[in-house]
């Protein structure tokens, strides 16, 4: 008897024992009751408004200005050759 056949036989034996004892078959309760949506006027939790990128002071000191997903801006010079950005 293979391992799968042994497991199948054990599962069927448990099922038959429960059926003989009069207990109903196990049911899955994965469905959750519906929840009322929150009002639209309430601000979203954990989301802060994005800040604007700082303006460069002079043309010679212009920054890349690339913005990351969390709102930080790149501090490397504009048009840098490096593939990565430095955020602060």
TrEMBL record:
Residues 16-88 are annotated as: Disordered. Residues 16-57 have a biased composition (Low complexity). This is Uncharacterized protein. It comes from Nocardioides flavescens.
């Amino acid at each position: 008897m293979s391992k799968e056949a042994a497991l199948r036989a054990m599962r069927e034996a448990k099922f038959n024992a429960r059926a003989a004892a009069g207990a109903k078959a196990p049911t899955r309760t994965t469905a959750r009751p519906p929840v009322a949506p929150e009002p639209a006027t309430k601000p979203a939790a954990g989301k802060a408004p994005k800040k604007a990128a700082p303006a460069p002071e002079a043309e010679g000191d212009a920054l890349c200005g690339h913005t990351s997903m969390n709102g930080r801006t790149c501090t490397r010079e504009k048009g840098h050759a490096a593939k990565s950005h430095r955020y602060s």
